[in-house]
Amino acid sequence: MACRAPRLPRGGAMALLTDLYQLTMAYGHWRTGRHRLPAAAELFFRCGPFRGTFALAAGLAEALRCLRAFRFSAADVAYLRSVLPSTTEDAFFDYLATLDASEVTVSAVPEGSVIFARVPFLQVKGPLLVVQLLETTLLCLVNYASLVATNAARFRLLAGPDMKLMEIGLRRAQGPDGALSASKYSYIGGFDCTSNVLAGKLYGIPVRGTIAHSFIMSFTSLEEVQPRELLPQAGGEPVDLPSVAESWLRRVCELLQTPLENVNRGELAAFVAYAIAFPHDFQGLLDTYCVRRSGLPNFCAVALALHQLGYRAIGVRLDSGDLARQSKETRQVLQACGAHFQVPWFGTIPIAVSNDISEQSLEEFRREVRELLPGRRPHGFFVMFFCALGPQNPQQHYRLGEEWLESCSQRGTWGGWIMSQQCAQVANEAKGILACISPSVASRDRGG
Question: Which InterPro entries does this one have (predicted)?
């Protein structure tokens, strides 16, 4: 049986976004003449999420928007005729066609308020039938929203006021609506920005982004960088940035006592290409190959080349390994370069960390940073989280494909060769698994 993709209304009527038994109970109330009785319902939670003592109330604006638009369209009523028992009287469907929430009143705490177990944070009053019909819809609108906002608030409390928090859960979210909700309610819960461009447009959330391993690994040498020239910030003749960066790389490697031959030139090319494209917003991902032997020297070289032309790099990111130790090492290298080359701002370049950070790992990171950098507040750290709340998410990844990997192997790209070997190993393991399960697997959606 083919399944069509759902098209949910945004900000419009969602009367059918409910459980079937709400409608059968509504018919029961109508059939016995009880549907107009005054009723009141309260929305609360019994236990705090994440085994905590509090939650943040969220989704209330969506709930009010739903109430204002609550009605059954002619198409809705026609569909209900097909799913409710055949004994349902026609007059009930006529009644549903006239129904709205104009007689419903709502009392609620402000969006983002701290709430506690068993204390109502939303109360609905109105005719019994309508109050009954609203139960599932309102719970749907506030439960996930409050969960995400609470999760974000817990991270904010752990991070303190000095660390910046960025939500990057779009790729692991529970569908497009879950992704937008996660971005919106993480922001309400205390995050500073999101990577979700559509959420930024819809909700006015600041949008940020860095750079991915795939971009860095797609380069093999400085010869691939085109165009090569960059105009100085103050004006003048264009400068060949790859040449300036190479000159700075020799000086940085000498300072850090890093053998020049250990530095990955494809990574340097990627940084230079990105810097030419975004001279005011240059940032580097340091752990594609080796943070200390390649990522840091390459970043410092390109950032210093930009500084020579009047530009300022805006940050670095670490995405694997011991984030606290590498953050300390990165900060020390940035400070050493800043002091040695007399660039005072260099030592304060923000450091972003990511890689499935949990409450526990954030707490450990903050504690270790304090121990590694005693007497200093953790300014200049940017922590990135997947906040869509899918702990069993398979965490799929999107990488450059087989043809590209093969070309990298032919060009001698170390990172591409490693990935090609990993893919080959996984393919061999998958053959045995598929042999076991393929006879019993059938598609339920043969319509594509």
Answer: Aldolase_TIM, NAPRTase_N, Nic_PRibTrfase-Fam, Nic_PRibTrfase_pncB, Nicotinate_pribotase-like_C
Read off the CATH number of the domain in which 315 is found. Answer: 3.20.20
Is the C-alpha dihedral spanning 66, 69, 70, 72 positive or negative? negative
Residue whose C-alpha is closest to residue 331's, from 269, 361, 289, 376: 376
Please indicate, yes or no, whether residues 146 and 256 belong to a single structural domain of this protein: no
Q: What's this model's pTM, rounded to 2 decimal places? A: 0.83
Query: Which domain range does residue 413 map to?
Result: 404-440
Cα–Cα distances (Å) from 130 to 25, 37, 395, in that order, read: 11, 10, 41
- Distance from C-alpha of 357 to C-alpha of 351, rounded to nearest angstrom: 15
Query: DSSP for 123-184?
Result: EEEEEHHHHHHHHHHHHHHHHHHHHHHHHHHHHHHHHTTTSEEEE--GGGSSHHHHHHHHHH
Q: Does residue 383 sit within a domain?
A: no
Q: Is the same domain home to 138 and 248?
A: no
**283 pairs with which residues across the strands?**
315
> Is residue 19 assigned to a domain?
yes
CB 239: neighbour CB atoms within 10 A?
A: 16
Residue found by looking up tokens 């990172």 in the block: 415
What is the number of structural domains in the chain?
3
Q: Where a domain ends, among 298, 325, 355?
A: 355
For residue 6, CA distances in Å to 9, 17, 182, 197, 274 come to 10, 12, 19, 22, 39
| Residue count (the chain) | 448
Residue labelled with tokens 């700075």: 248
CA angle 329–330–332, rounded 5-degree value: 65
- Other Cβ atoms less than 10 A from the Cβ of 52: the count is 14
Instruction: Give residue for tokens 């349902």.
Output: 88
According to the model, what pLDDT value does residue 365 have?
A: 84
Residues contacting residue 108 through CB under 8 Å, at least 6 positions apart: 57, 60, 63, 121, 122, 123
Same domain, 146 and 53: yes
In the three-class reduction of DSSP (H, G, I as helix; E, B as strand; rest coil), residue 308 is classed as: helix
Q: What is the pLDDT of residues 208-259, one digit of tens each?
A: 998 999 999 999 999 999 999 999 999 999 999 999 999 999 999 999 999 9
